[in-house]
Amino acid sequence: QQKGIRGKLNILFDAMEGWIVVLAVGVASGILAAIIDITSDWLSDLKEGYCETAFYLNRRFCCLGYDDEQIECNEWIKWNTALQARSASAEFWTNYLFYIIFSTLFATIAAYLVKVYSPYSAGSGIPEVKTILGGFVIRKFLGWWTLIIKSIGVCLVVASSLCLGKEGPLIHLACCCGNIIPRVFPKFRYNEAKKREVLSAAAAAGVSVAFGAPIGGVLFSLEEVSYYFPFRTMWRSFFCAMVAAVSLAFMNPFRTGKLVLFQVVYDRDWHAFELLFFALLGVIGGLYGALFIRMNLKIAAFRQNSWLRFFSVHEVVFVSVLTSIVSYLNIFMRVNPSELVANLFRECVGGDYHNLCNHSNHWKPTLLLLIASVLKFFLTAITFGLKVPAGVWLPSMAIGACFGRAVGLAVHAWQLNNPNFWLFASCAPDGQCITPGMYAMVGAAATFGGITRMTVSLVVIMFELTGALTYVLPIMITVMISKWVGDAFDKEGIYDGWIRMNEYPFLDTKEEYVYNTSASQVMTRVEDLMVIDTTGHNTLDSLKQLLRDTGYKGFPVVNNKAKNMILNGYISRSELKYAIDKARGKQGISSSSSCYFSSNLPVLDSSPFIDFQPWMDQTPITVSHKFPMEMVIELFRKMGLRYVLVTKNGQLLGLITKKDVLRHLSVMHHPNFSDNDDLQDP
Amino acid sequence: QQKGIRGKLNILFDAMEGWIVVLAVGVASGILAAIIDITSDWLSDLKEGYCETAFYLNRRFCCLGYDDEQIECNEWIKWNTALQARSASAEFWTNYLFYIIFSTLFATIAAYLVKVYSPYSAGSGIPEVKTILGGFVIRKFLGWWTLIIKSIGVCLVVASSLCLGKEGPLIHLACCCGNIIPRVFPKFRYNEAKKREVLSAAAAAGVSVAFGAPIGGVLFSLEEVSYYFPFRTMWRSFFCAMVAAVSLAFMNPFRTGKLVLFQVVYDRDWHAFELLFFALLGVIGGLYGALFIRMNLKIAAFRQNSWLRFFSVHEVVFVSVLTSIVSYLNIFMRVNPSELVANLFRECVGGDYHNLCNHSNHWKPTLLLLIASVLKFFLTAITFGLKVPAGVWLPSMAIGACFGRAVGLAVHAWQLNNPNFWLFASCAPDGQCITPGMYAMVGAAATFGGITRMTVSLVVIMFELTGALTYVLPIMITVMISKWVGDAFDKEGIYDGWIRMNEYPFLDTKEEYVYNTSASQVMTRVEDLMVIDTTGHNTLDSLKQLLRDTGYKGFPVVNNKAKNMILNGYISRSELKYAIDKARGKQGISSSSSCYFSSNLPVLDSSPFIDFQPWMDQTPITVSHKFPMEMVIELFRKMGLRYVLVTKNGQLLGLITKKDVLRHLSVMHHPNFSDNDDLQDP
User: What's the CATH number for B519-669?
Assistant: First the structure.
């Protein structure tokens, strides 16, 4: 308790420290996202050609002088020009080949880097981040190596033709920043709760830079990722997400002032009858989600359990070659998904984009879009789970946008051909009535919702992409329907599915459990536990023996084990170990010295002894043996407990750990759950 | 467990029921808000004149043909014209008089209605809504009478010249809808938890219609109002808020397509150096908040404890006359605050508004604005707490907007006179650099933040008012500074202050408590409790006697009171009463029949007995006597407990109720807290 100006300054710094940390995390995430955007854009364009004036420029920057994107600029050299392949077929085959080669090269390098340097960089990282925020430690998952390799990897894979996005990895990378930066501050280094707060904020920053949606990021962190979200965390997360967005805007990676490519502004409103089609898109989105999750998990399980797991790099090469061969032939699959989504979202004002706005011929683009959405579905299902950094959000949105735009084009054609049909009565007689771009956006929201089962945060993200409150209602209805349809098949989103498949110890905070089990049915019975008896003769040796013989994470301490087993406290394995190590250094303590766990310390005994009480949890949370299991689960979830002791009139009956709870839950839900000991309690 | 289509349909309806309820609440809130907007606008304009063509039209609707607001329209008859007072002074005095008369008339009717029909309609209602969502029942607070009287009252007071807003009351009214509508559905009528979920959603809808900010509403409900906010609630709240906003937009009360008058669009960006002035506004906002809360609570305490409390209507008359006399003389105080805020937020593009955009004369409007903000401060401090429906948000925003615009004008004048000053180096040489309207908005956010200490939700509300992400960062920084400055004086916002003053039993979920007390220091000791002894001879008569003699809310049940007092369970007063009442009707039961509270039921005893076990909580939550008090508070907050039993090795030592916790907390914070028994546990 310091007084005076110095004390006040210390308090101020103390209060500021948290803000400084999230500020740094936000800035780092924003800059990292900008670098990844720029690099991957350049690499991606390298598949088509190179910039003559400066090889390190991507197509857009190379052609910055040319206003219209449609005009070919002279500085940008396509590969066929470079190789002087001039006939039409030679041009096609040269570019096709280069597309396949570069695409596969990028994917292969990424897969190799991941395999050799950082296996944790694979996948989106969101299931693991969820698990970590749920209170478990996966060592090195958020370390330097992951940060570096995943950053490089994500640039490469996004530039390849693989069906994946950088959104999930960006969240993982932001969390890496959120793990590494606080290490500088002692207050954060040793405080798990504070660390987790920063991680929640970092996750928000990740979404903020991935979608240019800071508020959506905070809600995502709240809804999807964070386990325990006190209000202070929310405010800090918001700050962190804002700072990240501002940093990204400052870097301005696309030179358009937009935070992400696919931000749109519509200047037309929607009509009530369109809700019908939006609802249809919602149903499709839900079906897509359910189907995708099942298929993807099946493929992933096969990958994990078969010979395939030894050939992760070969698999990436194969999928990459396959994807690029298929993708090049359909313009809607050739371009990178972020650009595709941007183009599909766009209204038909100003330029056209691959005949999407040619009102005389609707059928060709509609067909191409439908083919693209189906092929992308299968390719994404194979791709998500490969051992490269890969997110599933953007491909899902691309699939939805393709399908949505196809539906939009169809409706548009219908309306143009039958303007007097009763459904279109509310259309203005002159001017365009249907905006197919809006259908693409609604479709993207539907598939996004179907796969992640996010609700509020998804709607807010889409709202921030358009900036207008008008479109929130249709998006909301679509997302709701998509979620309902998806939930009718399986209750879990893709991340929960992966968590279950990987058997991560994660206790869902959203599900409601109503079972008629009591604590005594789930607990590990006292007979199967090792307890420390205060009335027994404990020596340093006997305790060391106990540690050596058993692998338990902790030991209940009881009075008079033989008779009434009255609970006295609980000592965790690490505390016990620490106390023993500390005691050994003391004078007069030998390995046969007595150890005491109760307040009945010997007063007349002259030989030195050790008092273990300070290391013991003297007030563990206890529940009665008849206590309903739902309430125990609530206790675990809301209080962040790791164990609860079960007593009957003060007498110890058993112990329930978080793992017992998880095992109990999974037995209820999924009969073939097994224990996973790779993951450690913190 | 029904099967088949019928069962599935039942399940579907069951799942839909919650959505239908929030849909209805949303629609009701939206329509109610629209009606209040239209009515209060009309009444407000009645102070100035009336519409010749149709007396029930307000000025804007009356003059709908006239495009420019500045031109006087012929259909709108000012009072001086009606009374043919033609000289300048006669015109002034006539209008002044009518202003005072109407204003006072409206306020007086409102005060009278509140006093006679519904005292609960007074004030903003937010402190009470918070308390109700915290788990306490205030009977009739959200009933029909409150809904009707507060709706009428809020129209009247908003139309009067009193310094108050309709935002708080709108939230209260939405909660009334959220309380009344679910009564139709049996599932909701009897389930307190579900009722509270709907109330949380209703609060979100209230903010949604008050500010046209559905997302801000949800976050407000989460941040400020709701005690326990599971994720499902969030999604429903969002839906409810959206529906309310859409309903309001559909009614289009302002005929501008805007949901609230003061939505703005800026087409200029801010400069980094302006953050300095925004920070200054933040400091002022924080100081304003701290000062206002202290002053307002002092006045309110005086009102409650002096003779003044018997003259609530007279007081309203007095304040109303005073306010209208003062307000008429300053144009920025004469118009209703919602219009004022809208005009102050506006950029100087297109029309001018009372010389705010006249760049040659900055000083007159600046001075008028400063006078307005100071006078409004004192008037609002007196007004908030009067026995009329009254919110404090809008007047706070108006004060901040006045002050902010004044600062903006000053900075603008400075920049115009010294364009080469180093601070303004980043200004473009031609064109306007400073946007005073933005200063008004930032100032409004600062005072709003200072008074409510809201954070995320406030920023999101302001974001939704402008719709552009660009202005979020300055607003955020301002709100943050305002909160820090305010918190440096008092940690509580205005609502928490009122809750404390009214001694509502509310346990704040946001504060962190770190004390070195243990459960045994706070508990009511077992010696001071009435316990039921299972080994004693309990008869119906003795139990009835117990109920008659004591006022306790519940009784611990112990084994062998005399010897070891082993805890067996807990029975609440109401359950005991119910069980006794039920037993009395049974055959063979007399008032001397034995009552049993343990599983040792008599088997050989032939006389009839009553088993009270089913009515008893057989697994109450217990904590050890050494359990730290912070953890007990956490248990209460997170598990929504109402009591916890303190034991030592199974032996009952005492009882801690929610009230004990509150008393403990308030003793720590505010030494002169007393018990309040008007409010009841549910």
Answer: 3.10.580.10
Q: What are the tens digits of pLDDT across the range B443-485?
A: 999 999 999 988 888 988 988 887 777 788 889 889 999 998 9
pLDDT at B279: 94
Q: Give the distance, in angstroms, between the CA of residue A576 and the centroid of all CA atoms in the same chain.
A: 36
Selected residue of A235, A645, A651 to mutate for chain B interface (largest B Cβ count, 10 A): A235
A577 and A547 Cβ atoms separated by less than 8 Å: yes
Q: Which amino acid is at B198?
A: V
- Domain A274-501 and domain A519-669 have a common topology: no
pLDDT tier, A639 (very low <50, low <70, confident <90, very high otherwise): low
Instruction: Give phi and psi for A55, each to the nearest 5.
Output: -60, -20
By CA distance, what is A567's nearest residue in B? Answer: B649
What's the CATH code, domain B274-494? 1.10.3080.10
Helix (H, G, I), strand (E, B) or coil at A568: strand
Q: Do B469 and A621 touch (CB under 8 A)?
A: no
Q: What are A604's two structure tokens?
A: 């007349």
- ipTM, two decimals, is 0.77
| Cα distance between residue B237 and residue A555, in whole Å | 45
How do the domains of chain B map onto residue ranges? 274-494, 519-669
Residue A647 pairs with which residues in a beta bridge? A624, A652
Q: Residues B556, B652: contact at Cβ < 8 Å?
A: yes
pLDDT at A439 over 90: yes
- Are A156 and A128 in contact, with CB atoms under 8 Å apart? no
With contact defined as beta carbons under 8 Å apart, do A642 and A657 qualify?
A: yes
Instruction: Using CB atoms, pick whichever of A215, A455, A456 lies closest to residue B460.
Output: A215
Residue B299: alpha-carbon gap to chain centroid: 20
What SS3 state is found at B652? Answer: strand
Cβ A412 vs Cβ A352: under 8 Å: no
Residue of chain A nearest B470, judged by CA positions: A246
H-run or E-run covering B525: strand B524-525
SS3 A335: coil
- A8 membership: H or E segment, kind and range: helix A4-46
Helix (H) or strand (E) holding B171: helix B167-180
The answer to whether residue B223 neighbours chain A at the CB level (below 8 Å) is yes
Beta bridge partners of B623: B646
CB contact under 8 Å between B467 and A468, yes or no, is: yes
Q: Name the band, by pLDDT with cuts 50, 70 and 90, for residue A672.
A: very low
Task: Give the pairing of strands A622-624 and A594-596.
Answer: unpaired
Alpha-carbon span A496 to A67, nearest angstrom: 46
Question: What's the CA gap between B594 and B612, in Å, rounded?
Answer: 10
Q: Which of A365, A364, A399, A402 is nearest to A381 (CA)?
A: A399
- What 3-state DSSP class applies to B265? coil
Residues 6+ apart with CB under 8 A from B208: B29, B214, B216, B217, B240, B241, B242, B244, B245, B248
For residue B67, pLDDT over 70 is answered with no
CA distance B649 to B653: 10
pLDDT confidence of residue B28: 96
Q: How far, in Å, CA of A202 to CA of A218, rounded?
A: 9
Residue of chain B whose alpha carbon sits nearest to that of A212: B469
CATH superfamily of A274-501: Clc chloride channel (1.10.3080.10)
For residues A190 and A176, is the Cβ–Cβ distance under 8 A?
no
Strand order through the sheet with A609-611: A538-539, A594-596, A609-611
Number of H helices and number of E strands within chain A? 26, 12
Distance CA B251, CA A287 (A): 36
Res B351 pLDDT > 70: no
Q: In degrees rounded to 5, what are phi and psi of residue B517?
A: -95, 150
**Smallest Cα–Cα separation from A531: which of A563, A506, A554, A505?**
A554
Q: What is the mean pLDDT of residues A310-339?
A: 90
